[in-house]
């Protein structure tokens, strides 16, 4: 069994084009990639986590993928506008700190349509918000998960300008 790999996942602009019908039309393609990686677990980092219960969010996924949703990231309130840059990554690293003994060694990546949410760009599958997750993104996610499985050390470590909450 490979070590757990966490995928921090946004919804709007990823599972469906942003501003269109919230039909999760791209989710089956994401799930198809995840099925190839038994060690992959999903952590919902989308703002939807503040609107809906975990149970309702998990219900969006296929029945076989639901047990692989590990939770949602905590919501951090920035004190300054400048703290918005990289906020989603900081929330994700806080979640990792609560679930993994060594955050720096943890295997993780993110799928998001907003690059400003993530400072560790080498771990980001950046989708086009007008299209959502595409076949090209599926290939990139597959390569990313393969690299994380193989322990390829080319990925930068998460940058952090905050203290881990205890």
What level of helicity do the residues show?
A: 25-40%
- Which fold name corresponds to the CATH topology? Rossmann fold
The total tally of domains equals 1
Q: Any idea what the CATH architecture is?
A: 3-Layer(aba) Sandwich
Instruction: Identify low-pLDDT runs.
Output: 154-166
Organism: Parazoarcus communis
Protein name: HAD family hydrolase
Pfam family, one: HAD_SAK_2
Overview of this protein structure:
The chain is α/β, with parallel strands linked by helices and 166 residues long. It has a single domain (5-150), classed as Rossmann fold, CATH 3.40.50. The protein is 26% helix and 14% strand. It contains 4 helices and 5 strands. The protein has helices at 27-35, 54-58, 87-99, 135-150, and strands at residues 5-9, 40-44, 69-72, 107-112, 124-126. Strands 3-2-1-4-5 form a 5-stranded parallel β-sheet. Helix 1 packs parallel to helix 4. The longest helix has 16 residues, at 135-150. 36% of the residues are buried. Mean pLDDT is 88; it is low at 154-166.
């Amino acid at each position: 069994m490979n070590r757990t790999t966490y995928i921090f996942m946004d919804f709007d602009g990823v599972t469906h084009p942003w501003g269109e019908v919230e039909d999760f039309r791209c989710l089956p393609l994401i799930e198809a990639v995840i099925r190839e990686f038994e060690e992959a677990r999903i952590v919902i980092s989308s703002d939807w986590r503040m609107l809906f219960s975990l149970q309702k969010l998990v219900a969006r996924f296929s029945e076989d993928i639901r047990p692989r949703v590990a939770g949602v990231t905590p919501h951090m309130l920035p004190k300054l506008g400048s703290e918005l840059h990289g906020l989603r990554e900081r929330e994700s690293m806080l979640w990792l700190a609560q679930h993994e003994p060594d955050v720096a060694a943890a295997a993780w990546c993110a799928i998001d349509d907003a690059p400003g949410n993530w400072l560790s760009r080498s771990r980001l599958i950046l989708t086009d918000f007008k299209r959502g997750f595409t076949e090209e993104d599926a290939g990139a996610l597959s390569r990313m998960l393969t690299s994380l499985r193989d322990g390829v050390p080319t990925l930068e470590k998460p940058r952090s300008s905050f203290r881990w909450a205890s």
